Amino acid sequence: MGIPFCPTRCAYCSFVSVDAPKQLAAIPAYLDALERELSATAEAVRAAKRRIAAVYVGGGTPTTLSAAELDRLLGKLRELFDLSACRELTVEAGRPDTVTPEKLAVLVRRGVDRVSVNPQTMSDRVLETIGRRHTAADVRAAVAMVKKTGGLALNMDLIAGLPGDDPGGFASTVEEVLAMEPENVTVHTLALKKGSRFLTEGTGSLPDGAAVGEMLALAREKLTAAGYVPYYIYRQKFMSGSFENVGWTKPGFENLYNICIMEELRGVLAAGAGGSTKLTAPGGIVRRLMAPKYPREYMERIGDTCAAKAEIVRFYQDNEFNGKGS
Ligand code: SF4
């Protein structure tokens, strides 16, 4: 489920995520449209006899929503779907400057059991270069709130190869993050993508491929020594030095949603602007349904997006795949 709003826009971001005050004012109307789509999806899931194994609320930054809006959204999710077979419910709280004790309390009350707080780097200088508009102290404060709330496994995302960073700086970032004892750490390599401010305004001084390789080797060494194991890996286009993104976990805390996405083990039912539903059946049969990319377009065409959910029922009926998970 996608919430394409963020408090400000990071310089490396290529997602469709909006931050202007006028756009943020559209959040209530966006939630109205999203609830219509969730309702149509739930109806299709029931008719196709699917079960939900995991829920991932991503973005953007879902915790840009207020505590009351998060409560409304997660309450609706629970009201519409049978989540009795759901093994995990993750909400991205990627920007630490959006995390509050009130929002975390709502998440736990609504059954969320995993959040992702993403520093990317613990260097204030590098954070400023990449336009994150928060500090390393904000990260520490957000993680302290997560720990105090209790009941939430914690993922933290890092990026190797950011402008102005070097192997020593990245090693310090990894050490600081490990000291906060997250259950999962995802180590990304910077990807310069179309649509990011880095490509239109320049990046500053980027570490070269050798330096990025050294950063990743240092991260691997420190994560392994701290008892983490790698459990998924993927590559994107335009990544520094053709390296990869690796998900690390403390044993027993693997994120099911990430495994399913990487290994294409199950279908994915998306909701929200830019959502890509992927229906799968034995024999490598795949059918995709795409929602409009931009929030305004998504809201305007919500009727069509809801009507297209009938395809979910048709797909599973045609492939005689009922009763084998979703
Ligand atoms: S928080 Fe994530 S989605 Fe939002 S602007 Fe930054 S990189 Fe993009």
The gross shape turns out to be globular
Mean pLDDT: 91
Proportion of residues in extended strands: 15-25%
Instruction: Give the helix level as a range of percent.
Output: 40-55%
Which strands sit side by side, in order, in the main sheet?
1-2-3-4-5-6-8-7
Total helices: the number is 13
Structure summary, number of beta strands: 10
The CA-CA distance between the termini, in Å, is 15 Å
| Helix and strand sequence | EHHEHEHEHHEHEHHEEHEEHHH
* Low-confidence regions: none
Present as ligands are: iron/sulfur cluster
Q: Gyration radius, to the nearest Å? A: 20 Å
Largest sheet, strands/sense/barrel: 8 strands, mixed
* SS-derived structural category: alpha/beta
Structure description:
The protein is of the alpha/beta class and 326 residues long. It has 13 helices and ten strands. It has helices spanning 21-24, 27-47, 67-80, 101-109, 124-129, 136-149, 167-179, 197-201, 209-225, 256-263, 295-300, 302-307, 310-318, and strands at 2-3, 54-59, 88-92, 114-116, 153-160, 184-189, 229-234, 245-249, 276-281, 285-290. The strands form two sheets. An eight-stranded mixed β-sheet has the order 1-2-3-4-5-6-8-7, sandwiched between helices. Strands 9-10 form a two-stranded antiparallel ribbon. Helix 2 runs parallel beside helix 3. It is globular, with a radius of gyration of 20 Å. The model has no long low-confidence stretch (mean pLDDT 91). Bound molecules: iron/sulfur cluster (SF4). Iron/sulfur cluster (SF4) binds at residues 6, 9-10, 13, 15, 17, 59-61, 94-95. The site of iron/sulfur cluster has 11 residues, from loops.
